[in-house]
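User: I need a structural model of Heavy metal translocating P-type ATPase from Galbibacter orientalis DSM 19592 for a docking pre-check later this week. Nothing fancy, just the predicted structure tokens so I can convert them on my end. Input:
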Amino acid sequence: MEATLSTKKGFSFGLWESHGSAIVTSFCLLFIILAYLARINDHFFLEITLFLFAYLIGGYQKALEGLHTLFKEKDLDVDLLMVIAAIGAAAIGYWMDGAILIFIFSLSGTLEGYTMERTNKDIRSILDLRPEKAVLLRNAKQVPIKAEELKKDDTILVKPGERIAADGIISQGYSAIYQATITGESVPVDKTVDDEVFAGTVNGYGAIEVKVTKLAGETMLSKIIHLVQEATKEKPPNQLFVEKFEGIYAKIVVLTAIVLMIAPPFLIGWSWKETIYRAMIFLVVASPCALVSSIMPAILSAISNASKERVLFKGGAHLENIAGVKAVIFDKTGTLTYGQPVVQEIISYEGTPEMELLKITASIEALSEHPIARSIVQYAINNDLELEHSTNLRSLQGLGVEGSLNGINYKVGKKDMLDNIALTKEQENLALKFEQQGRTIIFVSNEQSLIGMISIFDQVRLEARSVIKQLKNMNIRVALLTGDNEVTAKKIGENAGIEEIYSGLLPEDKVEFIKKMTTKYGKVAMVGDGINDAPALAAASVGIAMGAAGTDIAIEAADVVLMADNIEKIPFAISLGKRTNRIIKQNVAFAIGVALTLIVLNFIGGIINLPEGVVGHEGSTVLVILSGLRLLR
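Assistant: Understood. Predicted structure tokens for Heavy metal translocating P-type ATPase:
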């Protein structure tokens, strides 16, 4: 069965195999027609010769693959069972029946190859987005170069209509960039100096110069390609079980067929010819082709569908897991909010000028990847401040950072980092006022006292409330986990429509909470984007990372990646998982039902003949594959 072989090889069915299989099937049919014409004209020798050609052309590839499995892997598969059944039919004079078996078997493989080609086409099309060449600007000259040879800090020229060859920052020029392939945005996005662009996206109307920030293997497009390739290789537990079951089942079928070829003449008085014929039909209809094909076509179709929606599953197992999710836990910054915090107020104390406070804070935060740190650094750069090199830097996960400037030690982060430094009542009230407005407060202190506060505001995503409502309508529990303070967390939660809010959590606290939720509700999904979210993403039944704004560590730890950072796709992903599981169950039930029906019809009254058994068996295989392809919609 082509489906069986393709399943074992990850459905690597290409255009050549698909077209080649169609040609073989056509010639097989041609020789069967010619053999039938020779039969009705009583040319016995010519008839048998033509049938032999049909057998060889239509069945040699399956015979080779079946023998390879038998002798190299010490196992039986359905390909060998089909060939044995056809040869057995010919041995007792049923040349036409055996030839029809070979033809329909070959036709089924061709149809499956075609359907799987459709599934894989969407996945392979992503590979075509990889730019192969770039124009490097070197010494004021344009030098053609392979995209994979680009290095960090190289500057490339991208002309209108060309694909951008690398992730980078625009250093000169402005244009509109078509970046639907990466972010899913349907309209071009205006980009100018200092804006980020991605490899594989298309430049619009203006020539731009781009400073390369990532090597070819590190680009966002490379991440997408890697994730999709890994997803198609990884098989879900139920598929692994079926493949293991197939080998055992095939041996049982062969042993049963041998018994059926021997026992009936002695027990129920059948002729040897009838006995062998019925045993051959049993070999065909009892083969697990449809059962094996019930799972992977559906899984790959669902992964392909999700990838078109910029949702990347790292494997079929995660499709199964997300279908059973009972609770979705959100991080705050970068998930429920846009992850683009903006500095609102700078309040300085101890005679420290505001710009000096900003310079100190940005210099300490310069190496941090946290969105709040990046916003402070960017704000300082926008104010033409020249940052200083800090020393003795130390990150306290979930709290902030500390470091030294000009021999003075500073701490930047949450109030908990202030140690023994007490706030005045006025400072406490001001901080509380900002927090009640949904802002995050960054405290800055030296070794003796608080020297200032910076308030940060990160807007809640416009779609957040709608997403939370959809999840609740699906009877899924929703909670917010954040390291932020209780007042700010509550304000953000209220704006998003979340009642269950847990604040002031360190990364290890989030992991512990995920474990408790898993024990209580079963499968739990965690949505995050930062380094401090990675442990919780790994601990959850399904980790969902933001692909564009998320850190590499978060993406690596997650099972599902939202490449467009669109949390609206979370209900879609869960629904897709549920639909996939439902279709797989339908396929399995249908495959088993058809097989049992054909077996009963074969032995009770001999109602079906070999061609009818072949049509029923192979037809059910094609139908379950077509059923799986419904997930492409």
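Before docking, keep this in mind: The longest strand covers residues 450-457.
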